[in-house]
Amino acid sequence: MDVMGWIGALRRRWILVIVLLLPTLFAAAAVAAQPGPYQARSQVALLPSKESSKLVGGNPFLNFTGSVFTTADLVSQEVMAPQVGQRLSARGFLSSYQVADDPLDGTVLDITVTGNSPSLVLRTLGAVTGAVRSTLTAVQGNVKPTAQITSIVLSTDLQAALMVTHKARKVLAVLGAGLAITIGLPLLVDAIAARRNRDDADEDAGRYPVARPRAPEPAMDGAPGRHGR
Questions:
Q1: At CA 8, angle to CA 27 and CA 23, rounded to 5?
Q2: Which residues contact 212 (CB under 8 A, 6 or more apart)?
């Protein structure tokens, strides 16, 4: 079926089109009216211990070794464990979060928090950032303080940002699915109705054949015509 055929079918099924289109528009509007999602981020850097930095004049930034990278991986996995998430949720920090190694620097942990409440996102960000630093201390509990790897907060968002692109994708997804049904279902209904009409017409033609007029028989040579004189 070409475009003009589609338009004709949709015009014939305009009531069904409206019935399907209205819920689609309402659903898209409902998704657009939902709060969020909002997102906030922070970064925590792990630093070599004071003792190991003595060889470079006590400057930890000159003494990054493989152990710091390994510790960063360990801490990120520990904070992402289900039991840590449950403890944070029990304390009221309900926004979802992600802790991962920074792609440009393995000694830096990127913390990302997402949720529908900007204030809750920021509170959860603070709690997760604190959990990263406390976990780093906890996994080194038997190590003397001067030999422990330490951490600093490199950056943290002061406001949660609205994820406009993410929300737009959700609205477009609802619209796309709704419009596909709004257009596809009437076309299907119209095609089924057209096929049924053709089948009924073929059935009627077989049941009541059309009588065709018989051609007059040709007169025989030398014989008088049918009508006589």
A1: 10
A2: none
Q: Looking at the domain assignment, is residue 216 inside a domain?
A: no
Joined tokens for residue 158: 């002061």
- DSSP H/E element including 214: none
* SS3 state at 153: strand
Tell me the C-alpha to C-alpha distance, in Å, between residue 28 and each of 13, 178, 214: 23, 9, 67
Residues 23 and 128 both lie in one domain: no
Cβ contacts of 52 within 8 Å, gap of 6 or more: 63, 65, 147
Averaged pLDDT score across all residues of the chain: 83
Asked if residue 200 and residue 144 are part of one domain, the reply reads: no
51 touches 149 (CB < 8 A)? no
Alpha helices for the chain (secondary structure H)? 3-12, 14-33, 50-53, 66-79, 82-90, 118-138, 164-207
Residues 63 and 107 in one domain: yes
Residues 107 and 152 in one domain: yes
**Whole-prediction pTM:** 0.65
For 69, residues 6+ apart whose C-beta sits below 8 A from its C-beta are 106, 107
Convert the pLDDT of each residue in 13-65 to its tens digit: 889 889 999 999 999 888 888 777 899 999 999 998 888 777 777 777 766 77
pLDDT at 123 over 60: yes
Interval 183-192: pLDDT, tens: 888 888 888 8
Structural domains of the chain, count: 2
